[in-house]
């Protein structure tokens, strides 16, 4: 995989930028042809990953850590163990995951009580816009709407950290969730110009054909999910989460990311302006 020019930094941050905490959610649904995932194509002019097809998600808001948020399902302590982070951060990550999914796709992983989930999100459209504008916190929205965050509708999937070479870095926790019955993902967000459901293998084939642009975390996640026959099977997967930090190497005049397990990973130097022979060993 070759990095698009828009993703190649002009200079190497020294020291590397500290990653910001973020959460992303892979919405899934079953079809006769197999499992499908929801993808958004980010607006080309976006500062980070412009033009790339991604899953809904974004950075953690400090208000996402509100300890008073109405919550059902695995406790923050459980999520903290899964993602190897502090309990307050785990609470914020789960809240950010549900909030960002609602803001970017219109899908709301919440319900009136611990046994139900909203089937029609249309009445919450004004609140969705207000959340995007940061007029109030997600906890306040849930309280006003008398809704409970359904942490049990999420499952931990992966943890990806942006390479040290990037000027904008994120420590992103990946979750998966089944599309709630009655809800639809609309992709109505100013950050995306296209939204679609794709079978993982189909999305990968479109990427290989140059019809879609995918970052390593996206195509790796799609590859893994493509091995699951149903959404229920994916949700039941017992995964061990560890941080995955790609490196960037130079091959002649081309830059490409390499992942742990690639023979070039251990040889990759943390500096983009190294000589090609230094990088390739």
Give an overview in words.
This is NUDIX hydrolase. The chain is of the alpha+beta class and 281 residues long. The chain has one domain (22-241): Nucleoside Triphosphate Pyrophosphohydrolase, CATH 3.90.79. Helices cover 26% and strands 25% of the residues. The chain is built from eight helices and 13 strands. The protein has helices at 76-83, 87-105, 125-132, 138-145, 200-208, 216-225, 231-236, 276-280, and strands spanning 20-31, 34-42, 53-54, 57-59, 71-72, 110-111, 148-150, 154-161, 170-178, 192-198, 243-244, 247-251, 254-258. The strands form three sheets. Strands 1, 2, 3, 4, 8, 9, 10 and 11 form an eight-stranded mixed beta sheet that branches. A hairpin with a 2-residue loop joins strand 1 (20-31) and strand 2 (34-42). The protein is globular and about 60 Å long. The model is unreliable at 271-281 (pLDDT under 50).
Defining key terms:
alpha+beta; 13 strands; 3-stranded mixed beta sheet; 8-stranded mixed beta sheet; 25% strand; 8 helices; single chain
Itemize the secondary structure elements and their pairings:
Layout: E1 20-31, E2 34-42, E3 53-54, E4 57-59, E5 71-72, H1 76-83, H2 87-105, E6 110-111, H3 125-132, H4 138-145, E7 148-150, E8 154-161, E9 170-178, E10 192-198, H5 200-208, H6 216-225, H7 231-236, E11 243-244, E12 247-251, E13 254-258, H8 276-280
Parallel strand pairs: 1-9, 5-7, 8-11
Antiparallel strand pairs: 1-2, 1-4, 2-3, 2-10, 6-7, 8-9, 12-13
Domain Nudix hydrolase: 19-220
Cofactor: Mg(2+); Mn(2+)
Keywords: Hydrolase, Magnesium, Manganese, Metal-binding
């Amino acid at each position: 995989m070759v990095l698009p020019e828009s993703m190649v930094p002009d200079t190497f941050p020294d020291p590397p930028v500290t990653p910001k905490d973020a959460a992303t959610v892979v919405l899934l649904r079953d079809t006769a042809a197999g499992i499908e995932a929801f993808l958004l194509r980010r607006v080309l002019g976006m500062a980070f990953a412009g033009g790339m097809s991604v899953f809904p998600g974004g950075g953690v808001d400090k208000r996402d850590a509100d300890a008073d948020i109405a919550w059902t399902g695995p406790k923050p302590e459980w999520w903290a163990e899964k993602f190897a982070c502090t309990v307050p951060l785990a609470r914020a990550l789960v809240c950010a995951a549900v909030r960002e999914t609602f803001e970017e796709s219109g899908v709301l992983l919440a319900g009136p009580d611990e046994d139900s989930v909203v089937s029609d999100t249309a009445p919450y459209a004004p609140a969705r816009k207000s959340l995007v504008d940061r007029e109030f916190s997600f906890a306040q929205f849930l309280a006003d709407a008398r809704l409970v965050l359904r942490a049990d509708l999420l499952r931990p999937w992966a943890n990806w950290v942006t390479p040290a070479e990037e000027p904008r870095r994120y420590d992103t926790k990946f979750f998966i969730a089944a599309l709630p019955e009655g809800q639809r993902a609309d992709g109505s967000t100013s950050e995306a110009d296209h939204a679609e459901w794709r079978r993982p293998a189909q999305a990968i084939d479109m990427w290989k054909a140059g019809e879609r642009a995918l970052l390593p975390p996206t195509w790796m996640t799609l590859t893994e999910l493509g091995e699951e026959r149903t959404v229920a099977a994916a949700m039941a997967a017992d995964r061990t989460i560890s941080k995955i930090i790609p490196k960037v190497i130079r091959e002649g005049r081309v830059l490409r990311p390499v992942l742990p397990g690639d023979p070039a990973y251990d040889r990759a130097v943390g500096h983009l302006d190294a000589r090609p022979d230094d990088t390739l060993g």
